[in-house]
Amino acid sequence: MASAQDQIGLIMQLRRRGIRDTNVLRAIERVPRELFVDPAFADHAYQDIALPIECGQTISQPFVVAYMTEQLALNDRHKVLEVGTGSGYQAAVLSHLCRRLYTIERYRELQKSAERRFAALNITNITTIIGDGWLGWPPQAPFDRIIVTAAAQAAPEKLVEQLKIGGRMIIPLGETRDSQSLVLIDKTESGLTETPTLSVRFVPLLHGRVKRP
User: Is there a catalytic annotation at residue 60?
Assistant: First the structure.
């Protein structure tokens, strides 16, 4: 069972690795990661490692969650799109930093589990949907920020279209899993600026028909 000491140890480790935004660190501290991992891995919830979850997916390591969140430079007026709900951990962290979060998941099992966790934590500013993340969420567009938690070779065109002028997207891009890096995409009146940052390894961003049982 996780303890307050485990949480403190994680926050200290994130600081040592370069996470400086106190709002991001506070959001990480407010989300009990043990609720988002398989009970079999609960003892590892506050280690800085990725862990397996249902449907062959993973919950990202806390440093990557914190880093991606920090790079988005969020404020409490932002409307955010997340592609890849997964366990819901990243969404729960983001929910403490933005006005509204819309999150898309391909797997109904993951979506329903994440919704139960949000309800248990009384998080009310997250809306989930089952869908193809490549297509984004047109009825709610445009978005101030977009975060993609699965990797593609290039940023999906529909997501770029749904990003506001002045908005920012963070997405893992790479030809292979061994060549991925997180890329910041800033959208301005004059076009897009892409800035590669951290080397990462994410599961692929799947495209195509989504089964709705």
Answer: yes
